[in-house]
Amino acid sequence: MKVEQNARLYFGFLDNPEPLNTAIAAGFQRSTGSPETRRSHRFGGRYENVYIAADRIPELGPVLAAARRLAGEILGLTGDRLRVGFWFNAMEPGERTQAHTHDDADEQLSGVYYVDVPADSGELVVHARHSRMNVPPRAGMFVFFAPDLEHEVTENRSPQRRLSIGMNFGLTEEPSAVC
């Protein structure tokens, strides 16, 4: 897997993502009703972020490992120097994600991985200075970008749910010196 760059965006692709994505989607469905599941960013009657611990969906492991490796490649760091925070974004028909950035804390890079992408389920729209770039998603695709880059997702006009995983990457804590 290699990172490709287009303007201020970076792309990566998993080989043969269908079995993994099917298992992730099933894990998401199984875990959304759990009391440990947290939700945030309520806009337009829905929570944009759904937080489920990685150990509840073990199939996330390969996706998060690939994301960390690709993010490290983009940032010029080894993947073990990066921590990844992630959340699910489930968009039902008629829903969209508001324009926002991810530069609230110490993020070094942001990204998204696409799990379920029905036809006409919305595009990632990235606003950079005076330009706008629409990115048609596809299952198994990663898109990485600077945390301060404003982005949104257009309306899901399909009859099915679209599922993606948002991510932020920050530096791990430096190991303390042993005296």
Structural summary, described in words:
With 179 residues, the protein is an alpha+beta fold. The protein has one domain (15-171): q2cbj1_9rhob like domain (Jelly Rolls, Sandwich), CATH 2.60.120.620. The chain has helices at 18-31, 60-75; strands spanning 4-6, 9-13, 38-43, 46-51, 82-91, 97-100, 109-116, 124-128, 131-135, 141-145, 150-153, 162-171. The strands form 3 sheets. It has a 6-stranded antiparallel sheet. Strands 6-11-8-9 form a 4-stranded antiparallel sheet, with no helix packed on it. It has a two-stranded antiparallel ribbon with strand order 3-4. Strand 1 and strand 2 (9-13) form a beta hairpin. It is globular. The chain starts with a strand and ends in an 8-residue tail after the last strand. 28% of the residues are buried.
Task: Please summarize what this structure is.
The chain has 179 residues and is an alpha+beta fold. It has helices spanning 18-31, 60-75, and strands at 4-6, 9-13, 38-43, 46-51, 82-91, 97-100, 109-116, 124-128, 131-135, 141-145, 150-153, 162-171.
